Amino acid sequence: MEEVDSILIHALKQVGTEVSEEIDSVKAFSSELIVEAVVKCIQVINPGLGSALPTSLPPGMSARFRVGMSLAQACQDVGYKGEIGYQTFLYSNESEIRYLLMFLVEKLPREHAESSDQPAGKLLVLQKTIAAAIRAQLSVPWLPTNCRLPLDGETQSPGGEHSFHVQPLSLPHCPKGLGEKQLKEMKHYQRTVLPPVTAQPSQNASVVASILEQHAAELSAAQEWENEWNSQGLLSHLTPQEYRNRKVTRLRRRIEEHLRCAALPPADSAFGPQSSSSDLSELLQTFRCSGPSDSVMAKGTHFTHTQKFTFTRDTAPVTSTIPIGHKSESDAQLQQQEALESLTQQVEQLSSDVDQLTADMKQMSVTYTQVLDELKQRELKNSEKQERMQVKKKTVDLIPDADGNLLQLQDVVEASVKRVVHLAAQWEKHRAPLVEEHRRLKALCSNQDLESSRKLSEIKSLHDKIRVSTEEMKKKEEMHKQLVSELENLPQDASRSAYTQRILEIVSNIKKQKEEITKILSDTKDLQKEINSLTGKLDRTFAVTDEMVFKDAKKDESVRKSYKYLAALHENCSQLIQTIEDTGTILREIRDLEEQIESENGNKTVANLERILEDYKAIRQENSALAAKVRDG
Predict the structure, then answer these.
(1) Over the stretch 317-341, which tens digit does the pLDDT of each residue have?
(2) Is 325 exposed, middle or buried (0-12, 13-18, 19+ CB in 10 A)?
(3) Domain residues of the chain, as ranges?
């Protein structure tokens, strides 16, 4: 049992059970440790079922009974067929607990079973401890500071609460395709100029959030690229680099098209409909319109040039009429004020004229489009009427010689029918091979589509297998490194040959025990055969002797007494044999009772009875306390 207990304890440590080094057998397990071990195993076997189970016993006795019943039900749900109840966990029995733990360890998934065969290194133990602590903290619901109880102080500290702000980070990265000089300059910049990641955010509290955001963005980009490549990239029959280059080229073309559209004047002139632009075009148009009026992008029309020329011609005489001479400063200001007012009036007048002309042009453009539409409709009507007129004219020309023309028309119709029939026959001759060729090509295309879809599915499955194989290879490489490090840390005096020799000794001992058991069974069989033969011989001898003595007892009185002694001797021997058999049976029962007494002593019956009495008293106290609360309430 020591070997079995050591294997069980090692497996329980691998699933996260905190078993101290002093415990070396299942007999030393406490109720709390049994509950923790069973819950950890169930969480690994069925996470959905084990997530709702507590890993420790509560202080109240009624709650402990409920936890024991829930654990017993969970063990039955995962397939345990033995007898189990709350007493299995609260009042533990060594054999029952060992059998239960052996069942749960055998039920563990393969990866946990494989990992339990390997020694746990310090790094693995540290990682599992960190994961268990994080899992325990995540299982506790968060409460505001003013709602926390004193018991929550251990898991939820009231320290520094602040909001996180994500800031962009510049990570060291050397792209492919750089020359030796550029690569050297890039490394020099990253080594000397680029600050570390922890120093780039403006606040220390934003470091973790920024790193997590950067990592999440990279993961999402990689996932999007993988999905796009599996869905569209494989169908394009291009390499990943060619597919990326084609995407970049398309994006550049779209940007150039948006820029080109934004560089054109807005389509709200009199001779064109108003077109809707995209967000990028509107943004560029806003920048274009916010510049100076004489921008290069602003193309003037013939009307604007004419207005500018007229404005310059009209304003030239006005500016030339400003008197120049030695006048006083007030006269000069008055003249300038009058000139400015006259110019302002002219500008207003011109602006009103421009607005009036613009409105007239818009109205004229609408009228022009309406006239064009009416003109097109009338031209269509005229063409239809001209065709009808030509047909009627030809019909009128044919009326004087109606009979001859009718015969000619019939001849033409018959010739046309014959020609159509001949063309139909020729078409059928050409159509049959074309239809066959079309069907053949269609079947070939469908076969090629099926083949391409099959190859595509095979490529996808190969990609999945490659990804799975890569992940397995990484895991195995990490396990190999861990095992190598653990092998280096192991003591060198413990060799494989010692373990092998020990195993061989155990096997030889088992063989010897089997041989001894077989020898004892064969001796028992021989002894039973001998007993049966002697019993039969004795019965036969007694029957013959009884018959012979009984014949002589009828004639001689002394022989009659011998016959009575013979019968008494046979009866006493039978009683003696029966007594010996009863003695053997009693001895076997005594040995069975001694074994049962030892097993009961191992089950800690007295200690369990004492614990049951204590739990009973605790339950009575809880019930009395609850009854007092009910009465007070």
Answers:
(1) 443 444 444 446 778 788 888 888 8
(2) exposed
(3) 2-144, 188-237, 330-400, 402-484, 515-602
